[in-house]
Write a sequence for this structure.
């Protein structure tokens, strides 16, 4: 694995603070790798980056083909049912796709052994990817600091055009600057707040009327959405999953007799980022449909809904809740006998019995969200390991174009909330 250790910058926390990041999130417990006693980074080549970009472009084209099939194909209703999209919302999802509602960003999580194997898609973070500021601003500041202290050569680079991609995206709305932007996050989600705060700052730097709000501050007045100060919400970036918004809107209807969000989304009066058509990709069931459409793709892992799993699909595999995030509820089953190890078997096995031997790694956090009984089963793909950490590659796309890379490392094979952010450079 092309990683190596380095010495932390003396002022790395102060630099992060000056850049506007909540530094309490970085070091206790360690999140930014420089908080470790022995920090490390990853060295990549131009060829590695070219391969990752190729993967990003290919997977993005496959993803859009999937969305088109779900929204426009003859089996649209069946597919939306498989994706757990509520019936009342399906027309609005289709309209969102037909309008070409713009998408800001997404992140593809990949298993990749540089120089040894082809990247394989683990996750489609198409709806609510976070850690954007770390990937963009903090990572670039690290590179500049390493060059300044001559720990890296001046010609070393980084695959990081995230800020450029954001500026290009927001600049596309320059002819309609009269409309405001609201950037919303769930109250108490401090990590999400950092991503949303960064996006708000970029938009504001370009001259847009941009506001940072908590989602619970939004309310309805006369069929419109307003913020806590009564300002009309016209463009809303929400770092909040679509499946939870569907649930919230259903509760609003049960209480008031009317949906709040659905009529605004159907009519297009409320422009949301990520757009409603991204709900097709918000759950991991999309990974199963993607593999069903493109079974010969070199970048996709065999993936099935647990209820549709072939009888001969033996370990190693990974069981994932359809709507789980941050590794919650994930179980890796590395070994077993001929029989399929169910989720319950895997969770409660302590090593095996006379009929079956199961080697299982279980996520530190259980999943208790929507669709608790829905799982996918995905072929296991080993992650590269350095400094005792399993590393996941996060390939960022802005408006569908690959433009940046971030890495997270976890002591567990399951990347969860305790994962470290690991910077990289390119030679």
């Amino acid at each position: 694995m092309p990683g190596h250790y380095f010495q932390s910058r003396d002022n790395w926390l102060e630099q992060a603070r000056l850049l506007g990041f909540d530094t309490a999130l970085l070091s206790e417990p360690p999140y930014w790798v420089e908080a470790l006693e022995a920090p490390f980074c990853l060295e990549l080549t131009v060829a590695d980056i070219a391969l990752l970009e190729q993967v990003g472009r290919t997977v993005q084209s496959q993803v859009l083909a999937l969305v088109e099939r779900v929204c426009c194909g003859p089996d649209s209703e069946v597919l939306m049912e498989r994706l757990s999209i509520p019936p009342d919302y399906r027309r609005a999802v289709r309209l969102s796709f037909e309008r070409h509602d713009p998408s800001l960003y997404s992140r593809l999580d990949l298993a990749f052994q540089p120089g040894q194997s082809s990247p394989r898609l683990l996750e489609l973070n198409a709806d609510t990817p976070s850690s954007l500021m770390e990937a963009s601003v903090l990572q670039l500041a690290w590179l500049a600091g390493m060059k300044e202290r001559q720990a890296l050569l001046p010609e070393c680079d980084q695959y990081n055009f995230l800020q450029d991609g954001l500026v290009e995206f927001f600049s596309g709305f320059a002819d309609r600057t009269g409309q405001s932007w609201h950037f919303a996050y769930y109250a108490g989600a401090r990590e999400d707040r950092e991503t949303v705060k960064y996006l708000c700052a970029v938009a504001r730097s370009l001259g847009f009327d941009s506001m940072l709000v908590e989602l619970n501050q939004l309310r309805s007045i006369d069929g419109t959405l307003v913020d806590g100060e009564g300002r009309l919400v016209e463009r809303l970036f929400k770092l909040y999953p679509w499946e939870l918004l569907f649930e919230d809107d259903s509760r609003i209807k049960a209480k008031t007799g009317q949906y709040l969000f659905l009529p605004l989304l159907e009519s297009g009066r409320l422009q949301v980022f990520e757009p409603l058509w991204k709900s097709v990709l918000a759950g991991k069931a999309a990974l199963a449909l993607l593999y069903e459409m493109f079974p010969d793709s070199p970048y996709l892992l065999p993936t099935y809904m647990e209820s549709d799993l072939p009888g001969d699909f033996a370990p190693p595999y990974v069981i994932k809740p359809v709507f789980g995030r941050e590794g919650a509820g994930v179980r890796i089953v590395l070994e077993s006998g001929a029989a399929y190890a169910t989720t319950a078997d895997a969770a409660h096995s302590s090593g095996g019995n006379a009929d079956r031997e199961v080697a299982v790694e279980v996520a530190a956090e259980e999943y208790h969200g929507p669709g608790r009984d829905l799982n996918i089963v995905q072929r296991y793909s080993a992650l590269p390991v350095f400094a005792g950490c399993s590393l996941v590659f996060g390939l960022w796309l802005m408006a569908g174009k690959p433009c940046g890379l971030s890495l997270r490392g976890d002591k567990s094979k399951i990347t969860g909330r305790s994962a470290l952010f690991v910077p990289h450079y390119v030679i």
